[in-house]
Predict the 3D structure of the following.
Amino acid sequence: MILLGASDTELRRGAELLKMGKLVAFPTETVYGLGADAFNTRALARVFEAKGRPRFDPLIIHIARFDALDRIVLFEALDGRRRTLLDKIAASFWPGPLTLVLPKRKEVPDLATAGLATAALRFPSHPAAQALITLSTGAVAAPSANPFGRLSPTRAEHVIEGLGDKIDCVIDGGPSAVGVESTVLDLSVSGPPRILRYGGIGREALEAAIGPVEAPAAAAGEDAAGAYPQGGRSSPGTEDRARSAPGNLRGHYAPGTPLILHGSDALAYSVYRGGEGYLFFSGKNRDAFVGRNPGASALFVLSEAGSVLEAAANLFELLHRLDRLGLDRIHAEMLPQEGLGAALNDRLSRASAGSLLPPPGKYT
Ligand code: AMP
Ligand code: MG
């Protein structure tokens, strides 16, 4: 694996590798992506292999010019209303952390879209990502550059740790500024656009620009809402399930520490246990916890000031750090549900459910 910086010469080299069908991980404003030429089926197949990602999970195709859509999107399948919506959304949020699901041309490989009639498209704002895409083939399929089911990478070192021996190149462009994945918005449906995944653009911002959008009722996900209703305590049943899942036993083949998700502002009221880690939303919440549990350690804070934006940028890095400490468990608390908070709550609830799943690689 070659490690490159983000200079012009190095981006040119990365782009050449992409054109040759190689896998190149690169920085974006959301998280690091694992790039492959979107029209090279062999390269696409290797993406699934490297990540241990199930083939029914489609990839996002990254572009860096609006006219790149012509090769991918079946515009004829969009009525006037949706074309106007597309123009408005693209003008307001691209480049940026928003992915649009649109009807696709038949030339787009099924492997990129999991055989769907639609393709997911994003125009990232990160300059290194834009240069790499433009200098290569103009259409780069890229899921997050992590093994399937694991923490997303927001730094080059996370990519190397997770996939270093399975890919051809990593471009180091420093930490990702947004820190959570893009919001995925489905424009292929006949009703109002529908949010399929919460992410870097909040529902409020979308609605301010284009009017009502449909969205899952509980951004934190049904699982989390069911498993951890109120009050910040995990149910004993959850812990039993965690222990009986082989992928969750520390020291076995499943890496990653079980994560227990608590309600918003609820972690301050839990009782400290040595050997367990704590991830607070704000400095205020940590201080309240320390007030009740003097001498507690392994305490991390997403944002001292309680800023959701800052929390997003820090989330995956702090989870990676906590994961390296060899703790028995990580406790985290939900954030306020507005804006990026919805995306963070979604990721945290998946992280907590993910620690109950079998290890990566089982689904390939
Ligand atoms: P990742 O690249 O790993 O961050 O995940 C890409 C996300 O986009 C996943 O949630 C996919 O299910 C979603 N996605 C990609 N293509 C489509 C599509 N054609 N229709 C609906 N969702 C999609
Ligand atoms: Mg991912």
In short: The pocket of adenosine monophosphate (ligand 1) is lined by residues 57-60, 101, 113, 116, 118-120, 143-144, 181, 184, 196-197 (CB under 6 Å).
